Fold this sequence. Notes:
The structure holds two protein chains of two kinds. Chain A is mostly helical. Helix content of chain A is 74%, strand content 0%. Chain A has one domain. Chain A has seven helices and no strands. The N and C termini of chain A lie far apart (54 Å). Chain B has two domains: 1-117; 118-473, no CATH class. Helices cover 78% and strands 1% of the residues of chain B. At the A-B interface, helix 6 and helix 7 of A face helix 4, helix 5, helix 6, helix 7 and helix 9 of B.
Amino acid sequence: MSPLLIALLGILLLPLFVATWRMSLFGLAAQGLLMGWIAYRMGPPPTTASEWLTLVDLVVVRGLWAPLALYGILRAQGADAHRDVVAPNLLTWTVALGMVVASFTFSEALVAESGQQQTLISVAGAGVLLGFLVLATQASPLSQMMGALRIENAIALFELGGERHHEPLWLQLAQTSVVALTVLLYRRYLSMLGGSAAPTEEGALEEPTI
Amino acid sequence: MSSFADIVLPAVARLNLRGRLAHARATTLLVAVGLLATTLAVVVALGPARAPMLGGFIRIDATSRLFLVVVNAIFLGIAGYVWNRVSAAPALHVRATRFVTLTLAFLAAANTVLVGNHLLLLWVALEATTLAAAPLIVRPGVRASQQASWRYLLFSSVGLGLVLLGFGCLARGMEADGHVPTFFIDRLPEVASGHANIWTKLGLSFVLLGLGTKLGLAPMYSWLPEAYDEAPPAVTALLAAVQFNCALVVLFRIVHVYRPQNGSVIAGVLLAMGLASMGVSTLNLIATRNLKRLIAYASINHAGVIAIGLGVGKSAAYGLLLYVVSNAFIKAILFLTAGQIKAHYRTKDTRQIAGLLKHLPYSGVFLMVGTFALLGFPPFGSFLGELLVLSALVSSNQMLVFAAFCVLVTMSFVATGRTIFPMIWGHRKEAQAWPRQTFVSVLPKIVFLFVLLALGLYIPPVINGLMREVASSLGGA
């Protein structure tokens, strides 16, 4: 499974260097699909509804629904192809790579034995840190969405590594619905605000409100 | 069953909004649901604590009973405000149905947070309150409100993401101690009683940081002034007085379970976030000239006081609860009043508003009394609450925190008074004819004010008993 995790790490880094929104969405889709593959490979083939729901959450909601939902809006808006996820300079690239190294180093303190668990924690940690890097350096709604979704995917990866004590199906379904609804709202905000950061006028006064 | 009804009732009422009749009377439905939910909450509060039900996912303890009353009573007041607002401005009828639908979903989710006995259920419900509230912040055609709403959603998503990551780490901490992980709150003390391992410490830090984001604590507080400023007054009151307390209840649950073994981690993180929040909010209180933002920064300041009180624990716990409950009503009064003032003066600039007591007597009185309560004057509960937190800081030998607390509270006191008092008593240059406010339109705020005074002068034994029980669960004496 480690090659899959290394591939996932590559997918986390790729959109930081190839600055188009299509690549960002491809990265998001690839993360979901790879995590689905990792979940499938981690244990025996899925048999229970709960295990199938985990796969649906990763593959369908995170891997397909989230990127496609955003893609439709961006395409309709005719968004510029070029869009940096982090500022394109040596400093931010070094910081990004430094975060990956820090995550691998920190995971050694968390999981003593080197192996699959340690790599999974490292990649999940790198995903969270890179997500925060994107959020900290970007002001446009699209980039911020990418940052937030990267963090959510990294958390899902982290959860895959724990011992499997499945929660009731309804609760799992509720968690998946929260992700799906969040993406739906992201889509609405992307449509409302556009992909790029625009200046805000100071709190305008308008017609009466509730 | 009453607690379960508090969740189901708003959800069912929300579905009924599909009917044509309900469309025409959406706000009446909102008030009716608020009234019924408050009655049920009082029934639950007067009853005994109950064993977990519905597979252990719902549990009524002292914390649920106390906050069910507070949250539902404030919701009822906000519903009354909305009903009056829509009745007075027929143009708002069109938007009322959507508002009521989302608000009822919000209430159902908020009540679930209060009675939930499973950390993941609490997380889902808190997320649901966010997803329902985000669209409510948007005012049609106002881009600033769209951006504020987006920032609210983004920060909430990230904050709650951190909470979920923290729960995952806590589960690993249980595994590391040889326990089968559980998220049932009543079973957590058994499995979380082992020595503090690195997973537990990491998990707690993530959970506290994530919940701190929802509470508007530094470092991730910047969404709050923007969202509170741009949202319609009723929505701001919902966020500040209802959702804030829901997030606080989740924090109470975590502190209750983990303080015995991880007291130093909890105290360290909460004291740091609390002091930082008081610091940044004080600076902004000095700088801002926007009424709603001023109250928003005061809310961050208060969240800082609450974090410090919770971090200290012990004798601060009772004072903290008094402060929290008083604060909920203060924020509801002030944000609803700020909305009324903005609607009349057509400005949020505090320098353009003066002579409120003369022009808008009701709003002037509410702003004046609300500000006194906000600043912690006697006889309000916030005064006693703040005093108890300060006394606990001294008794626990946290002298540096005590000193910083005193300096920051004094600075925020001066900054708030300097801006608000001229609005109340100052003289406006141009005389303008202001529409008269009816008694009905201010009734919710009068009730809130009455509760606020009662919290400082006489707390009914039932509520006092509940507060003592909750304080003791937080490590209080």
